[in-house]
Amino acid sequence: MKNQVAASAVAIASLAREGFRPSGDLVFVAAADEEVGQAFGLQWLCEKHPDAVRVDYAINEGGGERIVVGGTPLYLCAAAEKMSAPFRLRVHGRSGHASMPGIADNALVKAARLIERLAAYEPEPAVGPEVAGFLDAALGERPQPEEVVARLRAVDDVAADTIEPLLAFTLSPTMISASEQRNVVPGTCDVVVDRRLLPGQTPEDVEPVLRALLGEGDYELETIEGRGGTRSPLDTPLWAAIEGWLEDAEPGARLAPLCCAGFTDSHWLREAFDTVAYGFFPQRVMDPEVSGRLIHSADERTHVDDLALGVDFLRGAARSLLG
């Protein structure tokens, strides 16, 4: 996010002005394109200039929100991310003139039935290491996977909404294309489905589930891409550094691990160099529900006090790891 980029630049510059001499390399990378995925940004740097970005630890976007669960403040730290693995569902039918629909086999209508099945799918929940760590911090226990959302909902809606998509892979039909003419019944219909897989899952792992869900029919499944789906361990010096800073910044608050349901470019570092990468930029003033709704909106903004808090954290992390 742009606020974290600005805070990172200020943190690096202020440390340099103060004469801080790190015991190792302290690298500032400002790279775009993590969402478009056209081989620019961090992917390009890892492939073409690995020595410039090879690091043991990295702090990126994707976490830092403050929520209160059962009276305890929790700061979320993204130690993993789901894989973005969208696929194309191509449904076949038979085209014809729209004035005589009975002689055609409308692929759009056939696709509608399959879309409803995708939308109604309720996957089997599972608790991964990040969710387990979150439950330890939020509840002090680990309910059975099928009970997790209800238990969290009883104490905090934001916590329940945050964890729900992290218990299984998710399916969201988002794009559809069929006939280009109003009077032509489409013979094919393409549906793009945004599929997010848990770390460690592959498209091949879940394809049997998809085919069982969709049933028999005249259709094809094609994975468009598969990016992300990586995780970093939690027992690391960087995790300890974040916890140490949090103890000073807000005594009594806890650091809670999270798997990012969205997408960051941390996976390029993990895949290329086995970097321990966390998404963390503390946000104490702005309501996480408000900031979440504002992402990519016309009124996207941050609070100046949260910028200052982020600078303080980044300076502290650098001194803790490289002092």
Structure in a nutshell:
The protein has 323 residues and is of the alpha+beta class. The chain has 12 helices and 13 strands.
Q: Could you describe the 3D structure shown?
A:
The chain is globular, with a radius of gyration of 23 Å. The protein contains twelve helices and 13 strands. The mean pLDDT is 94. The strands form four sheets. Strands 4, 5, 7, 9, 10 and 11 form a six-stranded antiparallel β-sheet that branches. A three-stranded mixed β-sheet has the order 2-3-12, sandwiched between helices. The protein has a two-stranded parallel sheet with strand order 1-13. The chain has helices spanning 2-17, 41-48, 50-53, 107-120, 129-138, 148-153, 157-163, 203-214, 237-249, 266-273, 288-294, 304-322, and strands at residues 57-60, 66-69, 72-81, 83-84, 87-92, 96-97, 170-177, 184-185, 188-197, 219-223, 227-228, 254-260, 276-279. It is of the alpha+beta class and 323 residues long. β2 (66-69) and β3 (72-81) form a beta hairpin. It has two domains: 2-82 and 229-322, Zn peptidases (Aminopeptidase, 3-Layer(aba) Sandwich); 83-123 and 169-226, 2-Layer Sandwich (Alpha-Beta Plaits), CATH 3.30.70.360. It is 38% helix and 20% strand.
State the CATH topology of the largest domain.
Answer: Aminopeptidase
Number of strands: 13
Estimate the global geometry from the Cα principal axes. Answer: globular
CATH architecture of the largest domain, please? 3-Layer(aba) Sandwich
Largest sheet: 6 strands, antiparallel
CATH homologous superfamily heading of the largest domain: Zn peptidases
Low-confidence stretches: none
What is the H/E string? HHHEEEEEEHHHHEEEHEEHEHEHH
Number of helices: 12
Give the helix level as a range of percent. Answer: 25-40%
Number of self-contained structural domains: 2
Structural class by helix and strand composition: alpha+beta
Distance between the termini: 27 Å
**Rg over alpha carbons:** 23 Å
Q: For the residues shown, what is the average pLDDT?
A: 94
The CATH C-level class name of the largest domain: Alpha Beta
Q: Tell me the fraction of residues in β-strands, as a range.
A: 15-25%
